[in-house]
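Exercise 7. Given the components listed, write out the predicted structure of the assembled complex. Treat all entries as one system.
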Amino acid sequence: MQHTESKPAIAGFLQRRPRWAPPAPLFLLQPVLRRIVHRIAENNPDMFGRLGPHYRAVFVIDPVNLPFVMLLRPDPDDLMLVARRRNEIPEQDARISGSFLDLLMLVDGDLDGDALFFSRNLTITGNTEAVVCLRNALDDIDNSIAEEVADMFGRPGHAALRALRRINEKQETQ
Amino acid sequence: MIRPELVCPAGTPSAMRTAVNAGADAVYCGFQNATNARNFPGLNFTVPELERAVAHAHAGGTKVLLALNTFPPAGKVDLWKEAADTGARLGVDAFIVADIGVADYIAHTHPDIRLHLSVQAAASTPESIRYYCREFNVKRVVLPRILTVPEIKLMADEIPCEIETFIFGNHGLMVEGRCSLTNYITGLSTNMDGVCSPAAQVEYIKDDAGNLSTRLGEYTIDCFSCNESAGYPTICKGRYLTPAHDGPYYAFEEPISLNLSTLLPDLMKAGVTALKIEGRQRSKAYVKSVVSAYRKAVDSIMAGQDPQISDLLALTEGQKETQGAFKSKTWR
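Answer.
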């Protein structure tokens, strides 16, 4: 969600896994992710009720075409969303893997998770019940999470979101 | 031709609002317990959520149908009775029931609220449906997905209540309301606990080649090669090795979804009064796409135009669709 331009290079980057990429400067990402997860939690407190006993589960969100993964622990009292390099992933309860754009649209309620699973564009491993709870919790959010995040970054944030959505629409029509 | 009611799934309050906005005439939903057949983790409504949802739906002119469509185990009927009392207090428009004890309780305790007979009751003959109508004042029957359109037309002429048929979603050709396959492996019942393939017992294992194995409990029930579409982790849609067949095959059903968009005009002419979209376990993205598509199709037929049929293949299980037994008994 840090991309600010809709250029073909970005589209290509998001659509395929790079053969080589320089180490991502993850330390820059951490405070941004922390802000994002706290803002979403603040705006959508009801979602935690749907997590049931799995609110302390650690989810690995794996955008397969990016050089890092994100660790999510949706505990309202101890929220965590951090980026980790692929060789630094700790023990986890469940892993959700897909392209960055698919995961973004999924979180935003624009794509159906079951359909992504049927098409094999989404992979789930680990605790399936925890994943189902997380999916249902996120799906019950009325507002667009992507819009909420874009709001945090003002005009550049909305420009980036528009660019990502254009890329997604282009992918869907191909 | 009567204008059929479009009955749409609502697994969460947000999905319900989505269905209302997309043009649902009615939504169906359930509480977060065993009283409904989609008792999945994180899904369904709390009492306060349903109260707000009923108000929202009614403000949009949409009816709310409460699914109490599982079978109470012996000695545990109170949960179903309480759910019915709560639904009545919140102002739902109808109850969808499967068990005759639940039907009897509602018919006597809340006689002013409509009773719909769930597909889980598996009533598929005029005689059985007439019995439910006579004894419990059932106003509508949800027909099992085993009848052809001509058979539905014959049925409509012989029963004193409305007919609701599935038009999209789960194929569901098992004897609905009598499926015990999931019990065999997990110990939990589709029809009593509301749980088909409980997620806590489902595991997906992907190997280095990209093949995906699905396990339920201690059993592997399918393996999808890397480029193969996947289906739900249900026993009825698993592939099995048996001495009677070469290689693994779908012994019961295959992963496929029902899509009756091209049969809509025939269904409407046959006297179907409500068209049901399956999928309370699906996302609001699914609800928005499918409800919008069928809203357009039904409205165009009612306007005397050719139905506008949207492509919904991407949303179907296994990315395959069928008209199932509605088109022909030799559907497979």
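Discussion: Chain B touches chain A through 42 residues (CB under 8 Å). The first strand of chain B starts at residue 5 and ends at 9.
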